[in-house]
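Protocol step 4 of 6.
Sequence for PTS system beta-glucoside-specific EIIBCA component ([Ruminococcus] torques) entered exactly as in the expression construct, tag removed. Do not edit the line below.
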Amino acid sequence: MAKEDYGQLAKEVVAAVGGKENIVNVTNCMTRLRFVLKDDTIPNKDEVSKIKGVKGVMNQGGQYQVIIGTHVSEVVKFVKTEAGITENSKAVNKEDYQVMKKDSLWNRFFKVISGCIMPMIGPMIAGGILKGILVILTTIGVLTNTDGTYLVLYAAADAILYFMPIIVGFSCGKIFDCNPYTTATIGATLVYPNLVAAIAAEGGITFLHIPVSTTTYANTLFPIILASFFASKVEKLAKKVIPQMIQLMIVPTIVLAITVPLSYLVIGPVMQYVSNGLSTIVCAIFNFSPILGGLLFGAFWQLVVLLGLHAAFIPVLINNLVTLGSDPINAILGLTVWALAGVALGYSLRTKDPDKRSAGFGSLASALCGVTEPAIYSIAVPNMKLFACAWVGGGISGAILGGLGAKLYALAGDGFFRIPGMINPAGLDISFYGFIACAALAFIVSAVLAYIVQGKEEKKN
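Step 5 output, structure tokens:
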């Protein structure tokens, strides 16, 4: 689609989802416009799907998702303009995120979590890729971990994780309808160097004679989310009792004076226990049978992507990574992309239609770069037998990788970009070599099966 058509596409999509009055916010992922709507019963799925340039529609996980393609990052600019959403607009409102009070509790919770976390996914993936590259460079002796070049690049890679409470705090402020700079400041206090050092020192510190937990909050996610939610309640209450003339100064003072101590004394420790418990439970289920877990995740993860629910797992996967330092589950998920890439290759080599062959190779290239939606919607969904080929290839390779005990050590992209994230900071091990071998296996098995299945389809036609 030509750029000059983006404006018309945006106009039609905005109108079809209920107009700008029905749009709370809109963001995008690799291929989809992700709308948060006040009333998601207004759009007619068939009408939205008929719009030229729209490849599909999903209404899952609290988001109305309009599938556009890899050029969605350009389209979303026109959509935001059409919807009247700017950086300074009051587009995100906590009450709106409740979807007129009638949406499910799960969807409302997911919208909040998604809004808090999704903005930082890109930089987190970039950090994972940088860390992988640095491990490779130190392993082959190009750099050492004391070189200035290494230290600067490692800081660029690790900063978003270390200072996560600040970044997430800012996003939470927008979602919870609270001053985002106040919530970012609350996040900053959780990693404030002098305070962290004092708490960690022998004997620790007290606040009003109450001992402060020695828990550290760098690389944490859930404590700042709950702290920001509490801060929004305090701010709302303070604005009711403080005269408007002095609210600018006094309201943040009250919010910080109440929320920061409470974060250290109650919110932080409680949420850390919850966070650690969540990671322990998830990993315990997986560790009960890594082979079975690898088989199931490797086979059917892309079905979760198809349903648009994959973002719901992001908090758990990120929490595993920052709490445990590695994640065996996300290691498996990377294989499913290679399985779909294999399906795209087998399909492309076998189909006789030049247009389908061209689209197939395009989907292959996209999948190898980590974007699976083109392969899903143009190849797998129209013929579920081809999708099943990816399930087989991903399931077999996932079971093997799970049995090998491989782990993801840094959040990275998918396809080729996943490989750096599989590098153990201590050096190359089975996670790296096993992932490459299993990715190749998923790719080859899926490609061969897809070639056979597509061949049978060609004979039918």
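Step 6, annotate. The chain has three domains: 3-96, 163-283, 289-460.
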